[in-house]
Amino acid sequence: MFISSVHAERPYARSVAYNAAKAGLNHMARTIAAELVRHRINVNLIEPGWIDTPGEHDTFGDDVIRAAGPTLPWGRMGTPVDIGRAAAFLASAAADYITGATLAVDGGLLLRDALEE
User: Fold this and answer.
1) Which of 5, 71, 109, 113 gives the lowest tally of CB atoms within 10 Å of its CB?
2) What is the per-residue pLDDT across 7-43, written as a single tens digit (0 to 9) for each?
3) Cβ neighbours of residue 78 under 8 Å, at least 6 residues apart?
4) Which position among 11, 15, 18, 24 bears the catalytic label?
């Protein structure tokens, strides 16, 4: 299992290296999935959206993080627990028939531009 980012799918200004790295990671993971499918080894990706972590607070500041949550489609920032639950699911027997998949755990962030106002 790989942890990528919604930045792999949606470009964000001033993040070219990060965006490109995550897009490359996605392609690499899907290639590995194709190589391992005959062995029935699951390889999947999780694409977190904006997750409330200490690193985000260091980068953006507490006030920005606090204000950002209500502006997101789900009405809050994601949490490490949200990502952990997705990882636990993909690692479980319930996900036995899932491989080469990308699971966005983003509270609808990738849908933001498609939402009705």
Assistant:
1) 113
2) 998 888 999 999 999 999 999 999 999 999 999 999 9
3) 48, 49, 50, 51, 52, 105, 106, 107
4) 18
Give the model's pLDDT for residue 112.
Answer: 86
Cα–Cα distance measured from residue 81 to residue 62, given in angstroms and rounded to the nearest whole number: 19
Structure tokens at 19: 């965006």
97 is catalytic: no
Residue 23 CB neighbours (<10 A): 16
The CATH number of 2-103, from 3.40.50.300, 3.40.50.720, 3.40.605.10, 3.20.20.140, is 3.40.50.720
